[in-house]
Amino acid sequence: MILAMRDRAAIAGIGQSEYGRFLPASQLKLGATALKSALDDAGLEREDIDGIAIHLGWPLGVDYDRAAEAYGLDLRWVTQSWLHGRFVTSMMQQAAMAVACGLANVVACFTAISFTRERQILGGPGDAEGTREEGGTHGESPPYGLTAPAGGAALGMQRYMAQYGATSEQLAAVPIAFRKHALKNPGAVMQQPLTLAGHQASRMVVDPLHLYDCSLITDGAAVVLITSSERARELKQRPVYISGMQGMRSGREEFIFAPRGLGINQQATAKWAPQERDLGAYRMAGIERKDVQALYTYDAFSPLVLFTLERFGFCAPGEAAKWVQDGRIELGGELPMNTSGGLLSEAHIGGWNSILEIVRQLRGEAGERQIRNAQHLQWATAWGDSVVFRK
Amino acid sequence: MNKPLPRITPDSEPFWKALRERKLVLPYCRECAKPHLPPGPVCPFCFSGRLEWRPASGRGRISTWTVVHKAWFPAFAEDIPYNVVQVELEEGPRLTASVIGLPNERLEVGLPVVIDFDDVSLPRFRPA
What fold, for A1-120+218-237? Predict the structure, then answer.
């Protein structure tokens, strides 16, 4: 039953550490700060947490057993995903289902990362995942020197540009928009304005991606406390409901950094637009796409923002590069995106920094960035999963 | 530090073995007749386990490309900037490889290419 999870679980508290580069604290220490602040925010005690959903484990992050041991937790439900940012939705969905089913009362979705201390891991000799026999999960092929996730995003964008005539100058609208948002966020790592000229002059990393098309490499932690809606209503904060959701797509027609139909890896080449079955999150939440007031996505690389817009039908296939121009995805525009600056300009906390921003927006706590009368906000990714939140 | 070599599994061993003899082969399904990549234990289209290896023409077109400008991996630092492409073979499946005999500035989606080989039996492609 598609509606079974509508508004059954809610976010009762959020917390974070500082975000920055080369922070002296360990991931465990950053995580402790975030967990404490989430408990304070929710008005809960450490003993109330009986479940944990760890997005990124060792060595970039912290494994569930070390977190439980170090923080003195006594858990009866745990889950832990792969070392990839793509599992934000999966972790929230599992946590929501766990509390709805009674497997846990309060689940901490926990992410603590030190990308700077462990930067060798990303595409370097310490990155074993790219050497998977049949190719890495972002299209990596180490024998040819394609060893980092950015390479996969470059393969996707290069073909997209050839197919649809999109340009690097058009793509620049994405990082420029998110930088504007970061300038309104004192906690964001990037605090200098970004211009089109600055974007174009920045060094080429993996063609066509310039430096500012690639996410920040930062350290920090974020915690989201998920409980049943009944319980959340008794707590200190106004609940933010997990109102609708849908899962990640996978198969030969999918490449993590391309819309369906683009023709990367073994995808068929076809103009693909989402059908009803691709948009279950709206139906579960009982809303239409046009009710979404702001969209948040995993912007590890700026093309992913274009691909997400097409994946969810905000614009037609091949049109996203034009669609994002003229402030459309900026605060005050038709569909603001990643209003705290995202991975491109706030920090790369595995995507959870944007989940915290969604909660702040729906509580009306986003200050200068506040979206007026925010009711429905959506988290959605280029790989097709999504959570719709409401206040 | 050496460049990484392909990791070979029982499923892909015939593919790499043929390349050592400068031949490109693809796993074909004996039920539905379709070839697939990367080499797997069964046909991904009809799930049949009856596969056979057949020669491929070695011809195709660049379906996407990139040029790497950053030294993620020390062993590739001296090669920068170098290209990596995906080639859509005439038979349909796509293969990740690189292009030789062409300046990176002339890489283009749709460019016809033909297979070549290097001393570690990695497939490379040249403009056709």
Answer: Peroxisomal Thiolase; Chain A, domain 1 (3.40.47)
What pTM value is reported for the model?
Answer: 0.97
In CATH, what number does A150-216+240-391 get? 3.40.47.10
Give tens-digit pLDDT for A48-62.
999 999 999 999 999
Shortest CA gap A364–chain B (Å): 42
ipTM summary value: 0.97
Measured between alpha carbons, how far is A23 from A136 in angstroms, rounded to an integer? Answer: 30
Note the pLDDT tens digit of each residue in B33-52: 999 999 999 999 999 999 99
> Which residue of chain B has the CA closest to A263?
B63
A26/B contact by beta carbon, under 8 A? no
**Distance between CA atoms of residues A56 and A35, nearest Å:** 15
Q: How many CB atoms lie within 10 A of CB B22?
A: 12
Q: Does domain B58-128 have CATH number 2.40.50.840?
A: yes
Q: Which residues of A touch B8 (CB under 8 A)?
A: 133
CA angle, residues A222, A90, A240, in degrees to nearest 5: 60
Question: In what helix (H) or strand (E) does residue B108 lie, and over which residues does it extend?
Answer: none
Residue A143 contacts B where some CB pair is shorter than 8 Å: yes
CB–CB contact B96 A154 (8 Å): no
